[in-house]
Amino acid sequence: MPAAARTRTGTVVAAALAAGVALLSGCTEEEKPSAATKVRPETCFGAFTPAELAPLLGRGDEVTVDSPYDMRLNAQRPGVICNIYVDGKSGVFAQAKWQPVGRGFPQLPETVKTEPIVGVENGKVWGTGAAAGFTCERPDGSFELDLRLSGAVEGERDETRTVLAELMKKYVDRAKQQNQCGP
């Protein structure tokens, strides 16, 4: 094959490859937006901001929040749940339970390796969750609150623990405030 023909063939092959790459790159999926941008300013009983939840929510197109406005609890309203779904999957789950004093708090299975959350009464954090339990003392009577959080930062176990521990600190503070617990 003459040199000129080889050059034209090489040019045609290079052009075809460039066109193929351009077509394929047009087919790649666009990155989904942060799911936290679709969450109201204070969600899950008014305890968390979208920025605080962003690492656990990740990215997604459709966000659904299933939560009451507050977590004021008593014997007639002994529990509330907040579940934030991202593209149909649970991204963050928060639960608060009222119980009489002395009942004690549910124990985690021994297979779950927990670490204490500094500054949180009975606070524990593990790979995908956190828990805290405390007595709420009020002039009209005392009761116990059991708080649970779950979620995960995709592929980041240490970051998940850090995020959940910080969220639990805020969650406990908000629970005490909303339930008018004493110091």
Give a structural overview.
- The protein has helices at 3-27, 50-57, 157-178; strands at 63-66, 79-86, 89-99, 115-116, 124-126, 129-136, 143-151.
- It is α+β, with helices and mostly antiparallel strands.
- Strands 1-2-3-7-6-5-4 form a 7-stranded antiparallel β-sheet, covered by helices on one side.
- β6 (129-136) and β7 (143-151) form a beta hairpin.
- The radius of gyration is 25 Å and the shape is globular.
Short précis:
By secondary structure, the chain is of the alpha+beta class. 30% of the residues lie in helices and 25% in strands. The chain is built from three helices and seven strands.
Give the helices and strands, then pairings.
Blueprint: H1 3-27, H2 50-57, E1 63-66, E2 79-86, E3 89-99, E4 115-116, E5 124-126, E6 129-136, E7 143-151, H3 157-178
Antiparallel strand pairs: 1-2, 2-3, 3-7, 4-5, 5-6, 6-7
